[in-house]
Amino acid sequence: MSAAPVDLPRWADTALVPLVSVAAALAVSGLVVLGIGESPLEATALLLRGALGSAEGIGFTLYYTTNFIFTGLAVAVAFHAGLFNIGGEGQATIAGIFAALACLWLAPLPGLLLVPLAILAAAAGGALYGFIPGWLQATRGSHVVITTIMFNFLAATLTVYLLVEVIGKPGSMQPETPEFAAHAVLTPMHRLLAPLGITLPATPLNSAFLLALAALVAVWALIFRSRLGYAIRTVGANPRAAAYAGISPARITMVAMAISGALAGGLAVNEVMGVQHRLLLDFTAGYGFVGIAVALMGRGHPVGVALAALLFGVLYQGGAELSFDKPSITRDMVVVIGGVIILFAGALDGLFRRAVAALLLMRGR
């Protein structure tokens, strides 16, 4: 018999439970670090210093955070509809193809037109690649988890074919497109802020970060302040009740997956247009899968997604610096720390919810 669900105040469910999960995960990770003969406190200090201790470190941290915001929001929107979209990697890959084609084919256009059109092309590509699994589940009963997994591989295969046979850079042994025109890329943040008198070191952080912040606000307004968002949450809570109320679960499934795919396309905008300035293989680098953990930790709420994305941004950047300062703590060890956090925030979520509920009950007495 399954345990009865634990009811918590929204603030505790959104903030306190993830905080306890992360604290427990870091404590366990500290034991792992201790086991290899290093000081957990020193390792934590080095990690935080590498991620937040300098303007350059903050720039890299926010660059990673941008990717995780987009992929976390993509998974979160699907979660609200009762769907488990694990195809963020494939959707971002197709979005990258659409963005690259726009940047290459529309290069004669001025940047004020080209950049927005390329961003819209990326969103359209991701939306299309998310819509198809949604349509298959809504009309054919094909489970979205299975189809999105398969579509990840199809997208990767299509990218290889296009880069080798169709749009690859002539004469290059690397599977990549020619570099985009200078007016077809996003402005780096250090150049964007320079006219305001703010001097920053050069980092991969670019104006896609502002787009990610706008996406957080837009998803909040969509899910919690719109009729469509209410329909999405109703279908996710109880599809039968939604159908009884006149809401079509099939339509919402397709719409939610399309929105989810469009948000995943933000990863392509950041990487392809903001950092690489060309399309190349494996630019998604696993960010789509980390987005699942970000959405879980953030409880599907944009504020929680932003905080969880920042946490993983700190881990990615701080982990790189930590492995440089402490060679015995390799990047694989940082991956283990991230995996422990995912384990605690996902599989052991019920354990911490019950612990927090007991703590709140004791304080209320």
In terms of per-residue confidence, which ranges show pLDDT below 50 for 5 or more consecutive residues? none
Q: Whole-Å distance between the termini?
A: 29 Å
CA-based gyration radius: 21 Å
* Record field, number of beta strands: 0
Order of helices and strands: HHHHHHHHHHHHHHH
From the helix content, strand content and strand pairing, which structural class follows? mainly alpha
- Could you report the average pLDDT, rounded to the nearest whole number? 91
* β-strand amount: under 5%
Could you please describe the fold and organization of this structure?
The chain has 365 residues and is mainly alpha-helical. The chain has a domain at 57-298. It is built from 15 helices and no strands. The model has no long low-confidence stretch (mean pLDDT 91).
Layout: helices, strands, pairs:
Elements: H1 10-35, H2 40-52, H3 55-80, H4 88-105, H5 111-140, H6 144-166, H7 189-193, H8 208-225, H9 227-237, H10 239-244, H11 249-276, H12 287-297, H13 302-325, H14 331-345, H15 349-364
Brief sketch in words of this structure:
The chain is mostly helical.
Question: Key terms for this structure?
Answer:
365 residues, mainly alpha
